[in-house]
Amino acid sequence: MSIVTPTARVPIQYFTDKETDEKIKAVTPFKEDRYLPDTSTKEQVQNQSDILNNFAENKGLRFVEVDNYNRLRYCYQCSLIKPDRCHHCSSCGFCVVKYDHHCPWINKCVSFNNYKYFMLYLIYSCILLAWALLTSIECIIRYFVRQQWTEQIVNFICVFLCVILFAIFGYYPLGELLIYHIRLATLNETTCEQAKPPNIRGDSNADYNMGIYRNLRAVFGWGLWAFPVDSHVGDGIHFPICYSERSATCTEIRYSVYREDESDKNYQYQF
Q1: What are phi and psi of 55, to 5 degrees?
Q2: Short-list 160, 165, 245, CA closest to 206
Q3: Do the bridges between strand 34-35 and strand 101-103 make them parallel or antiparallel, or are there none, so unpaired?
């Protein structure tokens, strides 16, 4: 399912028109065939922010993530304002909603649409490899119990090598990858966000961590979590935010969560 499920693409309303795209590119430094917004002057940063904010306001779009210069995140390749948790994939050549990483094994991005299927793929694969590993070990034990390993040394060596290869090149890498992504899912983080945490406007310490239960529910959904069916929660564009403190910008967010007491983790939800 993770292979055949389409990659989550950005909705059309986030794409800028030709005039806006030309305006933003006109005030952005261009060098070596690419735009370099991080090298902009203060005046250019202000102009870029004004252009993007005006477009977002006219379209009725709301964002919580900004870049290091407090600008809305703009993709110069795709000519769009990136929704929250969206990133451009250089391998696919377009922006991906809730981008996690580009997986070479399925030859597409792991994103909002197929993250559950990717997790199930890892779980199913680990179960299959564990079964193969255990049955192989059972063969080795049988050789020892029946004292046949000296008589059938070639068969014994083949089985033993298969067990070693399964453990080193199969179960261990997949197991480590599964543990890593389970940890990400419980924290409501993506691989990309762990490498570079999101910069949420109004609160640099805010995150998407709603607690283990809600985080896992956002990935696996209700009920049929163990089956490859579409059951994830949300639209991939808007996400609950856990703020470390109240701020004026919180009123602009579609979904918001305020962390009232950091010591006992009491949360007050506002929808």
Answers
A1: -65, -45
A2: 245
A3: unpaired
pTM of the model: 0.79
Candidate list 86, 89, 92, 103, residue with the active-site label: 103
**Residues 104, 101, 17, 59, CA torsion sign:** positive
Strands (E), the chain: 30-31, 34-35, 74-75, 80-81, 87-89, 94-96, 101-103, 108-110, 242-243, 256-261, 266-270
CA angle 165, 168, 174 (to 5 degrees): 115
**What b-and-e string marks burial along 4-20, b requiring 16 or more CB atoms within 10 Å of the CB?**
ebebbbbeeebbbeeeb
To the query of whether residue 162 is one of the catalytic residues in this protein, the response is: no
Q: How far apart are CA 161 and CA 40, in angstroms?
A: 58
- Three-state secondary-structure class, residue 173: helix
pLDDT tens string for the chain (271 positions)?
556 788 889 999 999 999 999 999 999 999 988 999 999 999 999 999 999 999 999 999 999 999 999 999 999 999 999 999 999 999 999 999 999 999 988 889 999 999 999 999 999 988 888 887 777 777 777 777 776 656 667 776 777 777 777 777 777 788 889 999 999 999 999 999 999 999 998 887 888 998 899 999 999 987 778 888 888 788 889 998 888 765 444 433 434 443 433 333 333 333 2
Cα 70 to the center of its chain, rounded Å: 22
Radius of gyration of the chain (CA): 24
Tokens standing for residue 183: 């940890």
